Amino acid sequence: MTDNAVTDTATPDTAATGPADARVAAEAARRRTFAVISHPDAGKSTLTEALALHARAITEAGAVHGKAGRRATVSDWMEMEKARGISITSTALQFPYRDCVINLLDTPGHADFSEDTYRVLTAVDCAVMLIDAAKGLEPQTLKLFQVCKHRGIPIITVINKWDRPGRYALELIDEIQERIGLRPTPLTWPVGIAGDFKGVLDRRRGNYIRFTRTAGGATVAPEEHIPADEAHAAAGVDWDTAVEESELLSADGSDYDRDGFLSGESSPLLFTSAALNFGVNQLLDVLVELAPPPDAATGIDGTVRPTDGPFSAFVFKVQAGMDSAHRDRIAYARVYSGTFERGEVLTHASTGKPFVTKYAQSVFGQQRATLDTAWPGDVIGLANAAVLRPGDTLYRDVPVQYPPIPSFSPEHFSVARGTDPSKHKQFRRGIEQLDQEGVVQVLRSDRRGDQAPVFAAVGPMQFEVAAHRMATEIGAPISLEPLPYQVARIVEPEDAEFMNKQVSAEVMTRSDGVLLVLFSTPWRLQGFQRDNPEIKLRSLVAAADG
Length: 546
Ligand code: G4P
What we know:
By secondary structure, the protein is of the alpha+beta class. It folds into three domains: about 35-90 and about 105-290, Rossmann fold (3-Layer(aba) Sandwich); about 300-395, Translation factors (Elongation Factor Tu (Ef-tu), domain 3, Beta Barrel), CATH 2.40.30.10; about 410-545, Alpha-Beta Plaits (2-Layer Sandwich). It is built from 15 helices and 31 strands. The strands form six sheets. It has an eight-stranded antiparallel β-sheet. It has an eight-stranded antiparallel β-sheet with strand order 27-24-26-25-29-30-28-31. A seven-stranded mixed β-sheet has the order 2-3-1-4-5-11-6, with helices on both faces. A hairpin with a 5-residue loop joins strand 12 (about 295-300) and strand 13. The two termini are about 35 Å apart. Guanosine-5',3'-tetraphosphate (G4P) binds near residues 40, 44, 46 and 161. Guanosine-5',3'-tetraphosphate binds near residues 45, 274 and 275. It is found in: Cytoplasm.
């Protein structure tokens, strides 16, 4: 890549033609790009495997996210993850199903909350909200649901682990409706209570789908489709109960409604046992039949780029150190419009410089394959992409720039100090790199000095990732000292001095120049706002969105 060549017309001979547009539109229409949102342990990894297994993308469950005792984990890219048996990073899985191509963007699966999860949600057209049948809505599910709602992402709800004792189905439906105001419209209804999962009533067709267990849930569970008039003979009173409850739901207005789903007001709902592979085919069918395909995207200036317009893509994640043998860095970009052809030269919207795509990859767990072509909805992994940052746009021919990713309000803060004074230069460079990649937000203040930047994060796991990378990849180990702050707000420059005089508050400058004031507790913040209504403090998400 040359630094001095600035161009908007990197490939002048690639103007789209009519038939090419039609092909792009057709390919876009068959893409389904989604993520699973859930609280840890609800079964996201198990469901991911089950989906890939059903779509024949893998031959045996356990290949994608191996747990202890299973086959090697594919997305374990750091020793740290291996030791804990968790997956921190996002992996993009792509597989064909029926006439469609499914892109499943995996979100980090640990108890901690990180900005990566939010970033992944900027790249999907739909989300599957996975709920543990025994636990109902849990804190992280709620947080992620709010992000989806805020972004207008349609949600399919899946109640998982129905093979285990859990709550009543109708009670779970009520909880979703009452606590988050999302109206569930069940497409399947369980035959058999939680803990005795025999099959489902397919509410759209009226028949009984009976499941059969397989050894260890390692292979696809056989299913029989039994007509309604024979279902009682097959399932007895469990069938009758399912029919009665389904009729109650219909009387309550809980039947599938397309407009409500697409507008985020209602949610198609299914019951599964990901571990036994029950109900997984039905979820894939719903994704294909009901989930929205990629749609036109809107640039910062309000221009609308249809999926069959010239190529454009949005970088939603940058990940380094995936392979400890090759210190590489991959930028993941979601295609919004046009066709991607490996090797062509695109334009990097924020700098106007050309970007060569020689090293495009598709990433399926650890198995990376060279990617030659991609369509709207697909995810491209761009290796050696040192210049790309989350929130960047790449385009061809006609310029476009998509809105940046909101930077979320950090809730954890730690001072970073280099532990090896001879690595001063590496320390500075490393901090800058982590900041640009969005691993952590970096704050500074005159009071603390340049040698003691403050890391700010949505979840503390981001600190561990940062410290690990500083030590292993950058070669400048750091120590982290937690600070007693929990909340950050944006403050106007003229109020900074006054704020700094407050007890339990401190003003710092983020690397993009924004001034943040940190408070020890939400309660302190509230008290301050009550006592000083004339000082205007803005929340971070609102600032980024507005
Ligand atoms: P996560 O990614 O959302 O964190 O959840 P994960 O898939 O790792 O599943 C968490 C635990 O729940 C795992 O058990 C998994 O086997 C189990 N599980 C997932 N789906 C179902 C289901 O439908 N039914 C039942 N009964 N269990 C389910 P584990 O003991 O932590 O691990 P493992 O040794 O079983 O793999």
